[in-house]
Specification:
Layout: E1 7-12, E2 39-41, E3 49-55, H1 58-65, E4 73-80, H2 85-93, E5 96-97, E6 100-101, E7 106-109, E8 131-138, H3 145-152, E9 157-165, E10 168-169, E11 178-180, H4 183-194
Parallel strand pairs: 3-9
Antiparallel strand pairs: 1-3, 1-11, 2-3, 4-8, 4-9, 5-6, 7-8, 9-10
């Protein structure tokens, strides 16, 4: 079956807003040559990087943003200092952020450090303060959630990259690149989410 809708995977670079319009001088999605009809599914704030889905299929977007489907989103997070296991346990079990407890999350150290392309604006470097990378898998998408969670346990986020949404990943893409999803990828996502009903 030939699809008439567009389904796009985009590696959003640092400093780009997840929308097509923004203030003067701000980089937006309009700078990347997308089809005119698509819009982003959810958002990454300008200081975050990684996987963003764009589509003009309203039902597909609904499946991906409706909280009841609880689909996983995977992030590589560079944090200040090396967290103790108790801090990771707090992230796993949930924290009260903005008056509401976060859902349980999967959290682990990334060792060795992942190799991502350098950021246009490097993170702040302090010789006497180590950093490390952790992976966090969430099933919800609240505003600046990971940054607020890591700050709450004393490990501010320095760099945040969404690497995966369900079975979709950044594989094969560099910052600023995008590709059309294969029909099989679209079908797999729809089937996996509808199974949750």
């Amino acid at each position: 079956m030939h699809r008439t809708n567009s389904y796009i995977l985009f590696y959003k670079p640092y400093g780009v807003h997840s929308q097509f319009t923004a203030g003067s001088g701000q980089a937006t999605l309009k700078d990347y040559g997308f089809p005119k009809s698509v819009y982003s599914v959810g958002r990454l704030d300008a200081n975050s990087e990684g996987l963003l889905i764009l589509t003009n299929d309203g039902q597909f977007k609904h499946l991906l943003i409706e909280p009841k489907y609880n689909h996983p989103r995977t992030y590589a997070v560079q944090v200040e200092k090396v967290p103790e296991e108790t801090s990771l346990d707090s992230l796993r079990s949930g924290l009260v952020i903005d008056g509401k407890k976060t859902k349980p999350a999967q959290v682990r150290f990334l060792n060795p450090d992942p190799l991502f392309p350098p950021r246009p604006k490097p993170i702040r470097y302090r010789a006497n303060i180590p950093t490390c990378w952790i992976e966090i898998i969430l099933t919800e998408g609240r505003n600046k959630q990971i940054r607020k969670m890591t700050a709450a346990v004393g490990h501010p986020t320095l760099r945040l990259i969404r690497t995966q949404i369900l079975s979709l990943s950044l594989d094969g893409l560099s910052p600023g690149e995008w590709r059309n999803m294969e029909d099989a990828e679209v079908d797999k996502i729809i089937m996996s989410l509808r199974k949750k009903l």
